[in-house]
Amino acid sequence: CRKKAKMLSLAIKKRSRVPGVMITQTVEQLPPGKSTPDFTRKPIAVTVQEGKKTFFKAMVSGEPAPTVTWGRNKGEIDDPEKYKTRYDERAREHILEIININPDQADTYKCFATNEYGKAVCTTTLNVIAAGFKKKSQGGKKAYFNMNVVVTRKKQLPPQKEGEIDPKLWELLISAPKKDYEKICLEFGVTDFRWMLKRLNQMKKERADEQAKQLENVKQIEVKPNGKAEFGFDMQLWDPNSAVNLYKDGVMVPYADDENSKHSLRKKGTNYIFSIKDPQPEDAGFYQVDVEEANVLTTDFRVPAVEFVDKIKDAKAVESEDAVFQCVLSTPLNRITWSREDSSLEHGDKYEITVSEDKLTHTLRVKDCEIADKGAYYAIAGIASSRASLMVEDTKDDAKKFQVNRPEIKHRIFDSPPSFIVPLKRRTAPQGYECYMSCAIKGDPAPRVTWYWNNISLNTNTNYHITNVCGVCSLLILRVGPKDNGEYKVAIQNKLGTAESSMMLNVRGIHKV
């Protein structure tokens, strides 16, 4: 009994590589190849408007893979109408979704990662913005009141004891270092320093809250044709000397105004653009911008593991005709970025952007081409890009064009044996979720593709959704279960030979919180 009690009470505190994470090891010695849970990315604090929804996202490590659960300080999160948890296998993120947020959900939230060797825990904060009102202008003058108010209970300050304070005092104090407070106050005849500090702190917080509401026209992080990942927004600073800080996953990131730096900031008027030069997979994460103590922007930069199986190709069109660019990806994506040298392209009257059902084939149609439409076009998926040119012929040159005798172009076929450009990769999927696996192949003639599960052919099994588009072979299981565990194999064959690629699928059971 004493030995058992000792084992139960064993709790070895360990240091995490991520600040703010507490790890407790519950065994005296870890077996070879095993490890306690840890967070590789912890959830960051968010501020969201009442009635909206938000997410907390975390990434964990440990062997065996930890179970992740969520909690909060002042209540439960077991109401499925308010809270939903899920695991994004592709991004390897554990997600807590909070729906239709109310002010009473503002709280400190906890994320727990647990396995048989210990537990890791970290906390984050949800701030809720309640809807307010805006007063109409009177007498031709604009009078603005807060549309949004952060739900906090402000402590009432004592009334000013005597006389009125010159407004210039507060402006000087807000931008002055603390060591000069006493000197400035004496110059204005203020001797109650305790009252002054309380009033000054309240003014700073009010300005910080107001500053957070000045943010608009926020753009998500995009990779541009110049190879940089950028995000921009419009913001008007109350104090031009306010410190603007950039954070990635809660860690401050140094930046410069030199565009050749890894991280840089360009400012033009009220427009701010942060850029990441030569983005790599390790640059993925949660980025936030703070002005002094106020968080004004939180955005997510994802770098999916994707390649172009078939890149976009040069196109030619006559004026008033449509031109089409098309590419095929190795991994399904809901959308990619289409752009020209100076701007991203959006679906609308001029451009038609479509995606195939399997999310692998992406198409851009340039409608009713004009001479101004000629030039370079880019397809950007993650940090991979493909470039092609559009030539637009002037209809005025039709007479000359039809006088040209164009020889018939004969295409020569180069036979090649089948091979894998991107092979199958090992998967781990939660029970009850969909599971997607794919590979990219090549060969001429086009190879015949057969899928196997534990050496049983799946090509005629209607429980699996199998596709083969432009050399990208995919298999989708809508709801995986324990019966889906095992080896999956793709065999490809043409008249010049055969090739195979296989992977193991592990299905994790659902853990009840």
Keywords:
513 residues, mainly beta, Immunoglobulin-like, 5 domains, 5 helices, 10% helix
Description:
- One of its GO terms (biological process) is sarcomere organization.
- Keywords: Immunoglobulin domain, Repeat.
- Residues 37-127, 304-389, 417-506 form the Ig-like domain.
- It comes from Haplochromis burtoni.
- There is one protein chain.
- This protein has 513 residues and is mostly beta strands.
- The protein folds into five domains: 35-129, Immunoglobulin-like (Sandwich); 167-214, no CATH class; 219-291, Immunoglobulins (Immunoglobulin-like, Sandwich), CATH 2.60.40; 308-393, Immunoglobulins (Immunoglobulin-like); 416-508, Immunoglobulins (Immunoglobulin-like).
- It is 10% helix and 43% strand.
- The chain has five helices and 36 strands.
- Strands 1, 2, 4, 6, 9, 10 and 11 form a seven-stranded mixed β-sheet that branches. A five-stranded mixed β-sheet has the order 29-36-35-31-32, with no helix packed on it. It has a four-stranded antiparallel β-sheet with strand order 3-5-8-7, with no helix packed on it.
- The protein is flat, with a radius of gyration of 30 Å.
- The two termini are 29 Å apart.
| Residue fraction in strands | 35-45%
CATH topology of the largest domain: Immunoglobulin-like
Secondary-structure arrangement, i.e. CATH architecture of the largest domain: Sandwich
| Tally of discrete structural domains | 5
Structural class: mainly beta
Unreliable spans: 1-8, 132-162, 211-218
* Shape verdict: flat
Radius of gyration: 30 Å
In the CATH scheme, the class of the largest domain would be Mainly Beta
Count of helices?
5
Summarize the main sheet. 7 strands, mixed
Residue-averaged pLDDT? 79
Number of strands: 36
Classified in CATH, the superfamily of the largest domain is Immunoglobulins
Give the fraction of residues assigned to helices: under 10%
N-end to C-end Cα span:
29 Å
Keywords: Immunoglobulin domain, Repeat
Family: Belongs to the protein kinase superfamily. CAMK Ser/Thr protein kinase family.
Protein name: Immunoglobulin-like and fibronectin type III domain-containing protein 1
Domain Ig-like: 37-127, 304-389, 417-506
